[in-house]
Amino acid sequence: MASQRLQQVQGHLSNSYPSGLLAGETAIITGAGQGIGAEAALLFAKEGANVVVADIDANKAQEVADKIKANGGKAVAVSGDIMQIDVVNQLVTAAAELGGGKIHHIVNNAGFTWDGVIHKTTDKQWDTIMDLHTKAPFRLVKAAAPYFRVKDGENRSIVNVSSTSGIHGNAGQANYATAKMGIIGLTKTIAKEWGPQFGVRANTVAFGSVSTRLTAAKEDGAAVEINGEKIALGIPKAQSKASAGFALVPLRRSGTPYEAAASILALASPLCAYVSGHTLEVTGGAGI
């Protein structure tokens, strides 16, 4: 079946709905209301996938779903806090309904940072980031297990979003770095458990500098609200100026959300039919 899918790849990249690399397949993409997640949802839909657009912001999720449907694709928006188990279950139910009883892909992209140096990081900061970046993806994968542990030969994959912070560590991000390393371990375990019998592929993308609200200036005012608490996002301008900038990035620039999303699409597609348990560093060459 994998070889048959590979034979269908040629020419699909430039096609619009409903043909494409993921034609007829169904995907859940979390954090899909903006940034990398929104671009991934649009790309998956353009390649023929039915997309569950999941985001904590109902309006943004609906905007992305509406854009997909306006272009002839199939999508449904599901809003809510991914750290709540009832929201996880809603996502799986919505995907199964949208896919006619089948789910093919999960992209665990939802996330944010809550930075602090080690000696000042609170238990709440630690627990929130760990729950968001490790427990929530685990719960979603577990809830969707009946739709992945099947032997029908269809293309199924899980793509978990990590970070170079998880590979190399990062000052001021003990919680985030630990969680993003943890998701790599979860990914490899999924690949080893669900690959042999069911052919499920699991991979991780570790992003470097990508232009999103997490890498914008903190002074711009981006924030997320969790349980009534407002968490500021971004990097302080003073800290950004003190860093090496893009001097250590061979491409000398930040990546775009579209470029980041394209790497997720590649891993989910038959183009990477023999890639599993891998962590793809998307960094513009930084770290080589």
Task: Walk me through the structure.
Belongs to the short-chain dehydrogenases/reductases (SDR) family. Residues 25-197 form the Ketoreductase domain. The chain has 288 residues and is an alpha/beta fold. The protein has a single domain (2-282), classed as 3-Layer(aba) Sandwich (Rossmann fold). The chain is 41% helix and 16% strand. The protein is built from ten helices and nine strands. It has helices spanning 2-7, 35-46, 58-70, 85-98, 123-143, 145-148, 164-168, 174-198, 237-242, 257-268; strands at residues 26-30, 50-55, 75-79, 105-108, 157-163, 201-207, 223-226, 229-232, 279-282. It has a seven-stranded parallel sheet with strand order 3-2-1-4-5-6-9, with helices on both faces. Strands 7-8 form a two-stranded antiparallel ribbon. Helix 2 (35-46) runs parallel beside helix 3 (58-70) and helix 2 (35-46) packs across helix 10. The longest helix has 25 residues, at 174-198. It is globular. The two termini are 36 Å apart.
